Amino acid sequence: MLLPRLPVPALSVDTVSHGRFELAAQTPENFTLVVFYRGLHCPICAKYLMELERLVPEFEKRGVSVIAVSSDGADRGAAMASKIGASALRFGYGLGLAAAREWGLYISTSRGTTSIGIEEPALFSEPGVFLVRPDGTLYYGAVQTMPFARPNFTDLLGGLDFAIANDYPARGEYSGAL
Fold first, then answer.
1. Nearest C-alpha neighbor of 45 from the set 111, 129, 140
2. What's the fold here for domain 12-163?
3. In terms of pTM, does the model score above 0.85?
4. pLDDT at residue 114 above 90?
5. Phi/psi of residue 36, each to 5°?
């Protein structure tokens, strides 16, 4: 389990149109927002990422760099970026499932063709949303076993406004005896 205030696992993926993404090389003013999504086969992901695409400038105003990542290959990653009309949002692809598991993401098996007629991969990761500090430590994390009821990006922006203005520490860091 990832713990706030401790280093997150390495994250290194190719992107659709921004070269190689290395989390350790990121230098945002405040955070890197990493949004793991299920893949091209997921209609809920497309809707969710459209909202993120719209809000990327708001995150950037707050000193937050943003990337969406999946275990899809290059073609499917590019298809998702095209599907949502990405111009501001970076799309990473090729996330290894062992790396997904290191991030605490759940792994699902294929159920065949989805409601939008796209075949699910044999194995893929479920969603997760993480804010990582420039020093590589976890500030916020949310993982899910299902594609629905994800963290709301507008709410996250409001939380960031408070956290940045008040130098609010990462919470959930206690790992001692209970």
1. 129
2. Glutaredoxin (3.40.30)
3. yes
4. no
5. -85, 130
